[in-house]
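Most newcomers find our protein records easier to grasp once they have seen one. A record pairs a protein's sequence with a compact description of its fold. An example says more than a description, so a record of this kind follows:
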Amino acid sequence: MNLNKLTIKQALEGLKAKRFSSEELTRACLKQINKTNKQLNSFLTLNPKAIDEAKTADKRIAASIKSFKKYPLLGIPYALKDNFLTNGLRTTASAKVLDNYIPQYSATVYARLKQSAAVLLGKTNMDAWAHGSSTETSDYGTTRNPWNLNHTPGGSSGGSAAAVAADQSIFAIGSETAGSVRGPACWCGVTGLKPTYGRVSRYGVIAMASSTDSPGPITKTVYDAALVTQVIAGHDPFDATTSQKPVDIKPQALSSQTNLKGIKIGLPQEYLVKEMDPKAKKLVLQAIDKLQQLGCQLEKISLLDPHYSIGVYTIIQRSEVSSNLARYDGIRYGNSRSHFNYEAKNRVMLGTYTLSTGYYDQYYNKAQKVRTLIINQFNQVFKNLDLIVGPIMPGPALKVGASQASPMFGELVDMLAEPSSIAGLTGLSLPCGFVNHLPVGLQITGPQFAEQKVLQIGHAYQQATDWHTKKPPAYD
């Protein structure tokens, strides 16, 4: 048995039955990392205490089977995107400005995973500062897609998605500003959940755009995504934007809810954009047909063309980037601002311009007004529908170097994720087929705090199909 190929659910069952230990599980993942990371460049920093954490987990398991109630992810190895602060372990955000930065405190997401007794394998590569959708802007080199090393894994959480797809890790954590969890999950053929904005704490996450940043899990199954989200979600006194609403995510309830009768789903016609690969479009429509077979009622709906969201998102995100990167002045953190790469400088300049006197009303203020229109439209649609379905990316993964052809590469490939991110909604990406041996993903979007319903429909789809079980041939 290749332990590193297990899902969280399978690994927990094996640990409870004592068929293997957390140390064996962790060593299997580390072996796969050592074997494949030179090709993939998915991990930047390994945790030197990973085996010690696994041994501690084994002691807890040996002491009492009840330990799993107290520690819900006891002994499960995972990977963490390198923009989450880890006290005592290097955190770079894939930027040379923070090349040797050792945080003095931890992100809430990391702290909660530690409290759940999950085992940190290491920190994964990403677009520097999360500026990109291909993991090509990393100052530490491009991460490669396990399905084809000539293609990008997507971004900015490309390292996390590649690590899960290549079975280097049982699960991983990413963060999304607009597509940075769902996009890489799609292109790497794994499952990615973007929680509602404010459902998961941003405390200790190196900020990109503070009004849309959302940490989320990248996993092998929808069920696993529910297990992880249940641990990391919830109010945090250190993050005033987190919701006081109780976390109602129940993974165990998913197994008994495979009948989707009565659930109303909408397919926005505008989301079948002209840029879509025809073969990918066909697969997405077939996946929606499958949801209908499982009981969903489909309605074709109309929403604001996602192309409008490109401009709104670009202005808001660049403005918030210019504000958030202002703190990296070379005095408090690592290296000087001369270490910023081209992409970071480009975004800071554009953001500063849109916020400057004489242009604020023309650009930033107008973008916020259109954002409100998008939010109101979603609210109106969800009065009659439970969920919205459609594509998450216009097509399968593009070749490495594709981002160099367009300064708006990320905004264009993520256009189908941007409206829901702007509105702070929850969304799921899950595999639904292949084009030229590269994965294609289905997007399921729900209202704010509707994670359980989104996970329910995604889990039912995965119970009825096997796309999520497919592995890249070189890593199978």
Notes: The chain has a mean pLDDT of 96. The chain is about 35% helix and 15% strand.
